[in-house]
Amino acid sequence: MTRPTEPVASRVAVYIDFDNIVISRYDQKWGRGKFHAERLRSADVGDDAVRARIEPATVDIGAILDYASSFGTIVASQAYADWSVPVNAGYRQQLLGRAVELVQLFPSTRGMKNGADIRLAVDVVEDLFRLPELTHVVIVAGDSDYIALAQRAKRLGRFVVGIGVAGSTSRSLAAACDEFADYDALPGARAEPEPVAAEPATTAVVDSGDRQADASALLERALRVGQAQGDDDWLHANVVKAQMKRMDPSFNEKSLGFRSFTDFVRARPELVELTEDGQARLLRLIDQPGT
């Protein structure tokens, strides 16, 4: 299946095997099997020694959802985990801030297997029939158990996108998807992610006191996501604005004091280059030091 050419009309559903991605990130950073060997499920994330291990392996939720939104409007997003586990609980407010539904799973065996793959697969298949307007299914996991799910979603005419952590992803799962991205290569993924707080504060895309700086950061992320989807660094201004609105529906240049989106962009010459081609306005991200 070829990638749809009208992303604005596309409707995306995102399903995150959260346990899988958290464990994979930790093992990627510290070595295979370290998450379970160090008993991170029952660890006190407020302990300084534990936090020093967890923070470098923090999952950048924003990068995942921003990438998913590049395929179209996210109409459903769900994350599956045992949210009573402290290392997972630290992400709850971040996920809720991006309108992700938290699906509670409980361990059913001594090995702490929580059945996320079964519950996630059942929900995906149900949504494919319940929501026929869905065009894209994004599966965030690396487990080979999802191969059949990806194949079935493709058979039902959906474009399947997989996201997984390098080194922990089944090659067969990647091959079963229409498109697969390594987590580390996602546009905007931070090399040093924000730490997971033991008692996290609510975070959102635009939530700090400096709204202008937050809006600039949103613009930069939208440009990076857009450029990652094609070979041309120049993007149409209306496409960039649409991507920003998908990433943060609250964005409005007028509320920031600008008459138009073009004025908003022109106020950021250190970040974005703007040119006009007839009636079209094209934008290009200026390379930033250290990026």
From TrEMBL:
Q: Where is the HTH OST-type domain?
A: 211-287
Which InterPro entries does this UniProt record tie to the protein?
A: LOTUS-like, NYN, OST-HTH/LOTUS_dom
Tell me where on the tree of life, at the top rank, the source sits. Bacteria
The record's listing under Gene3D superfamilies reads: 5'-nuclease, LOTUS domain-like
Name the chain's protein.
NYN domain-containing protein
> From what organism does this protein derive?
Skermania pinensis
| Lineage of the organism | Bacteria, Bacillati, Actinomycetota, Actinomycetes, Mycobacteriales
